[in-house]
UniProtKB/TrEMBL annotation:
It comes from uncultured Alphaproteobacteria bacterium. GO terms for molecular function: DNA binding; DNA-binding transcription factor activity. Belongs to the LysR transcriptional regulatory family. Keywords: DNA-binding, Membrane, Transcription, Transcription regulation, Transmembrane, Transmembrane helix. The keyword Transmembrane applies. Pfam families: HTH_1, LysR_substrate. InterPro entries: HTH-type_LysR_regulators, LysR_HTH_N, LysR_subst-bd, WH-like_DNA-bd_sf, WH_DNA-bd_sf. Gene3D superfamilies: Periplasmic binding protein-like II (3.40.190.10), Winged helix-like DNA-binding domain superfamily/Winged helix DNA-binding domain (1.10.10.10). This is Putative RuBisCO transcriptional regulator. One of its GO terms (cellular component) is cytosol.
Length: 295
C-alpha cells in the first residue's frame, strides 16, 4: 500500500475536492486524480462517482476514509516510537495566536517525548499571518503555524494540518431554528476579516439575503466568544472556539455549508532546508488534531 496515495485520499476527504487537496499535498490536480485512479485499481473498489462535477465520494469511499486514517496514524506512531534516535536538530517556529490552542501544546509534548534530541524553538507573539509569512520568506523562521490557505507563492510551501467549519454561537435562549434565524434574533457581533477565507463569511451572509447591522466589530474570535458569553449578541467563529461556547451553554449551529472553511497549516520556504523535521511536525500536528476532533 502506497502511503502517499492514502495521504492524498484523506486530503480529498478533508478538503472536499481534488483541486484543494492538490494544494494541500503539493501536487498538481491531474497527479491527484491519477493517484486516486491507481488506489481504486489497487482496492478494486470505486471510491469516487465521476459522473458528477466535482467527483463525489461513493459510499465505499466514505467508509474507506477511516481505514486510511487508521493506517496513516499507525505508521506515524511506529516511526515516532522506533525512529526517535535518528531525529535531531533545531526548528525555529513562529505561531499565530489561533494555532497555540489548536492542539499545538499536545503535539509539542508528543515530539519531546518521542524525540528528545529534537529542539523546538517557539516564537509566539501577537503578529499576524502576513507578518510571520515575511519572517519565513526572509529566513528568520524555519516555519510558521498560521491560518490559511495563503495565496499561491512559488517561494513558499503550505502544508495544512486542520480544516475547520464555521459556526454561529449565541447566548442561551436565543430564538431561531436555522443559522440565519439565530443571527437575526440577536445583536450581531461581526468579526473584522483579515484573510481571504475570513472574508467569505460576509459573502455567505449576502447570499443568504441577511443584512445584519453589527452591534460590535471585533478583531479576534476570542472577543466574539467573550461577548456572546456575556449575552451581548451572536457571532460566527471557527470550530476551534465551539467547545468554549458549549461550556457556557451557548447555542451552537453550523454556519453555511461544508465548503466554507479555514485551514491551519505550516508555512515554510522552498526548498525546505529542514524538510524532514517539518514533515515530522506536520504529521504529529495532524494526528493530534484528528484525535481531538474525535473526542
Amino acid at each position: 500500500m502506497d502511503l502517499r496515495k492514502l495521504q492524498t485520499f484523506v486530503a480529498v476527504a478533508d478538503f472536499g475536492s481534488f483541486s484543494r487537496a492538490a494544494q494541500a499535498v503539493n501536487l498538481t490536480q491531474s497527479a491527484v486524480s491519477q493517484q486516486m485512479v491507481d488506489l481504486e485499481h489497487q482496492l478494486h473498489v470505486a471510491l469516487f462517482d465521476r459522473s458528477t462535477r466535482p467527483p463525489r465520494m461513493t459510499r465505499a469511499g466514505r467508509a474507506y476514509v477511516e481505514t486510511a486514517r487508521a493506517i496513516l496514524d499507525s505508521h506515524a506512531l511506529f516511526v515516532e516510537r522506533y525512529g526517535r534516535a535518528q531525529v535531531s536538530g533545531t526548528l525555529t517556529i513562529g505561531v499565530v495566536r489561533s494555532a497555540l490552542s489548536a492542539g499545538l501544546p499536545e503535539a509539542l509534548h508528543a515530539l519531546k517525548v518521542s524525540h528528545p534530541r529534537l529542539s523546538l524553538r517557539l516564537v509566539a507573539s501577537g503578529r499576524l499571518t502576513t507578518e510571520l509569512t515575511q519572517e519565513v520568506r526572509a529566513g528568520r523562521l524555519d516555519a510558521a503555524l498560521v491560518v490559511g490557505p495563503p495565496a499561491a507563492d512559488r517561494d513558499l510551501l503550505w502544508k495544512s494540518y486542520a480544516v475547520e467549519r464555521f459556526y454561529v454561537i449565541a447566548p442561551p435562549g436565543t430564538p431561531g431554528l436555522t443559522d440565519g434565524e439565530v443571527l437575526s434574533s440577536a445583536p450581531y457581533l461581526r468579526f473584522v476579516p483579515i484573510l481571504p477565507g475570513e472574508r467569505e463569511i460576509d459573502s455567505v451572509l449576502a447570499k443568504k439575503g441577511l443584512t445584519l447591522v453589527p452591534e460590535m466589530e471585533l478583531d479576534t474570535f476570542e472577543a466574539i466568544v467573550l461577548m456572546a458569553g456575556a449575552g451581548l449578541g451572536a457571532g460566527i467563529v471557527p470550530a476551534l472556539y465551539v467547545p468554549r461556547a458549549r461550556l457556557q451553554d451557548m447555542r451552537v449551529l453550523p454556519f453555511g455549508d461544508h465548503t466554507l472553511t479555514r485551514e491551519l497549516g505550516i508555512l515554510t520556504r522552498r526548498p525546505e532546508k529542514k524538510g524532514d523535521l517539518i514533515d515530522l511536525l506536520h504529521k504529529t500536528l495532524t494526528r493530534v488534531r484528528r484525535a481531538k476532533s474525535d473526542e
